[in-house]
């Protein structure tokens, strides 16, 4: 149901996602625009690489919170449209608002539409929609990261694990969840295209998220 409440929430979700955490923290506390260093992305991974964990951890947590908060706007809209939690209509609201937040992170209106790759915001969205599948993704991400030190490969793996999780491990939800899982995989593949090319050629940078870096190596 399209209403003034859903349209307003959709705009708010995009604005939540558009908060350029990495850019604002970098400029406020380090006088640095992280987009001018490392991978050139305004995301948590590049913040860890360029500014270290003191900046990277809050950026990551806030970016996750953006997706989580935006997705949960479904409860606000649902209260006015009689969409019951976990119903198809409610899930559709969650998906719409979460995707709006991710698009805001990718193309933030507050930072010249130059954002990050959306993985942390996607994580927050997944946490709000399906906690079990989200935890499965996080476990997969951590395992791959510890083994390979490739954040890009970890993100790609987590995306596919989510699709497998909602399709086979925790089935029974609305079909929109599975379609969303497919979209996540496609989005991650598109935003990580250059990383995939470097992985295939053995040129992808390995990352130690807990070691401060101030170099401008590519990611």
TrEMBL record:
Does the keyword field hold Glycosyltransferase? Answer: no
Catalyzed reaction equations: an acyl phosphate + sn-glycerol 3-phosphate = a 1-acyl-sn-glycero-3-phosphate + phosphate
Task: Name the pathway.
Answer: Lipid metabolism; phospholipid metabolism
One of the protein's GO biological processes: phospholipid biosynthetic process
For this protein, what is the EC number? 2.3.1.275
Spans through the membrane: 6-25, 59-83, 95-113, 125-148, 160-190
Q: Can you say what this protein is called?
A: Glycerol-3-phosphate acyltransferase
């Amino acid at each position: 149901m399209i209403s003034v409440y859903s349209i307003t929430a959709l705009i708010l979700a995009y604005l939540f996602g558009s908060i350029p955490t990495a850019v604002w923290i970098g400029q406020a506390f380090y006088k640095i625009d992280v987009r001018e260093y490392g991978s050139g992305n305004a995301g948590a991974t590049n913040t860890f690489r360029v500014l270290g964990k003191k900046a990277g951890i809050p950026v990551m947590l806030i970016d996750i919170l953006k997706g989580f908060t935006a997705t949960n706007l479904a409860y606000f809209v649902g209260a006015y449209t009689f969409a019951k939690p976990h119903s198809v209509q409610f899930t559709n609201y969650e998906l719409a608002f979460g995707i709006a937040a991710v698009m805001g992170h990718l193309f933030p209106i507050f930072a010249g539409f130059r954002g990050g790759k959306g993985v942390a915001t996607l994580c927050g969205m997944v946490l709000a929609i399906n906690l079990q599948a989200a935890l499965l993704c996080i476990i997969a991400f951590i395992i791959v990261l510890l083994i390979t030190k490739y954040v890009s490969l970890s993100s790609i793996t987590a995306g596919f694990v989510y699709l497998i999780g909602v399709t086979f491990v925790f089935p029974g939800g609305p079909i929109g969840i599975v379609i969303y899982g497919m979209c996540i995989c496609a989005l991650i593949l598109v935003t990580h295209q250059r990383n995939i090319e470097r992985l295939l050629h053995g040129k992808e940078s390995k990352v130690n998220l807990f070691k401060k870096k101030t170099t401008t190596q590519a990611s």
